[in-house]
Amino acid sequence: MTYELYYWTGIQGRGEFVRLALEDAGADYVDVARERGDAVMEPFLAGEHDEPLPFAPPFLKAGHLLIAQTAAILDYLGQRLPLVPEGEARRIYANQLQLTIADLVAEIHDSHHPIAAGLYYRDQKSEAVRRAADLRQHRLPKYLGYFERVLGRGDGRHALRSHSYVDLSLFQLLAGLDYAFPRAMARLRPGLPRLGALAAEVAARPRVAAYLASPRRLPFNENGIFRHYPELDDSA
User: In this predicted model, what pLDDT tens digit does every residue of 137-174 receive, in sequence order?
Assistant: First the structure.
């Protein structure tokens, strides 16, 4: 099957979690908007197709299916690529972990857009400084400490005792945080040895390494979820 991934051009965003899974598995896929422009998604979002109505990208066409929401897409792909251990309990646990990653990603986004997504960062900068301080000091230690314990409860190297899409998503999460909050992450990293080792192992996987070195891997920038504004980062 050739999968069709739909996501905004110019940013990694939430689509990158799906893209990493497709790349790691060596799946045949088309990054549709990158080839045809963002306007190709408008008919789907407007309900002009006889398909389930997605709220927003990313969404994936897999044969006759149209699947939206990052965690739902990865739950579907995980069973087919395969990137999740067999068994209902493990699949549900993988989905639980992915949804927890999604919760943190939303908080990261809100650290630079705490008032409204429709406002520019400069219009809510003072509020963002306060929100980012709470993220650095309280939320990141809580979430990342949880994922560190998840690895410790497993084999110490993987979220689910074997390689899965959750490992790929944790890699992307750490990569984004290292870009957005380098000083805060330098402070937190010594307490997260398992997560650090997992990220290094994922980055060294042959297909992932090839992808990261390719032009398909867009750089982080100040239009996506993970944004580096020095005033929002702090080592304290």
Answer: 999 999 999 999 999 998 999 999 999 999 999 999 99
Tell me how crowded residue 63 is: count the other CB atoms within 10 A of its CB: 9
The residue length of the chain stands at 236
144: nearest Cα among 96, 102, 195: 195
Measured between alpha carbons, how far is residue 197 from residues 87, 133, 167, 185, 194 in Å? 26, 27, 11, 15, 5
Which of 108, 97, 85, 106 has its CA nearest to residue 162? 85
For residue 67, the cross-strand partners are 60
Q: Please compute, for residue 56, the number of CA atoms within 13 A of its CA located in the half-sphere on the CB side.
A: 5
Distances in Å between the Cα of 25 and the Cα atoms of 1, 95, 165, 191, 200 are 13, 18, 10, 30, 18
Exposed (0-12), middle (13-18) or buried (19+): which is 206, by Cβ within 10 Å? exposed
Provide the whole-model pTM: 0.96
Which residue, 174, 177, 168, 169, is CA-closest to 112?
177
For domain 88-205, the question of CATH label 2.60.40.60 is answered with: no
Residue carrying the six token digits 């650090």: 196
